[in-house]
Amino acid sequence: MEIRSLTTADLEAFEAFYRSLSAEILQLFAPFGPDSPHDQLVEHLRLAEAGEHVSFGLFSAGGDLEGHCYVSHLHGEQPSFGLGLRERTQGQGWGPKLMAAAMEDPRVKNLSL
């Protein structure tokens, strides 16, 4: 597994990840659902590339996106945090590792919360 920043080049994996999440996961973690407009997903990745969001993905060796962690609205009054994993990846210790990657990003560390 590899943890890295998401870019617009990851759009296909990003869309597949959100389409794969169960109703139970979406009830707790739903920044984007399986029916989210394509443009909304593109915009999130574009803003991440522009430094407005921190957005990390957990990728399998086969290139599947297994988890997503983000901090959005970095320059707003209320940044937003989210972390979600596919069911098949839960319980393996990847959630804390993915969260640590996002929290260690200098843009997040410098937030005054």
What does this structure look like?
- With 113 residues, the protein is of the alpha+beta class.
- The protein has one domain (2-109): Gcn5-related N-acetyltransferase (GNAT) (Aminopeptidase, 3-Layer(aba) Sandwich).
- The protein is built from five helices and four strands.
- A four-stranded antiparallel sheet has the order 1-2-3-4, with helices on both faces.
- The longest helix has 12 residues, at 38-49.
- The mean pLDDT is 88.
Blueprint of the fold:
Layout: E1 2-5, H1 11-20, H2 23-28, H3 38-49, E2 54-59, E3 65-72, E4 80-85, H4 94-104, H5 106-109
What percent of residues adopt helix (DSSP H or I)?
25-40%
Number of helices: 5
CATH architecture assignment name: 3-Layer(aba) Sandwich
Query: What pattern of helices and strands is seen along the backbone?
Result: EHHHEEEHH
Residue runs with pLDDT of under 50 for 5 or more positions:
none
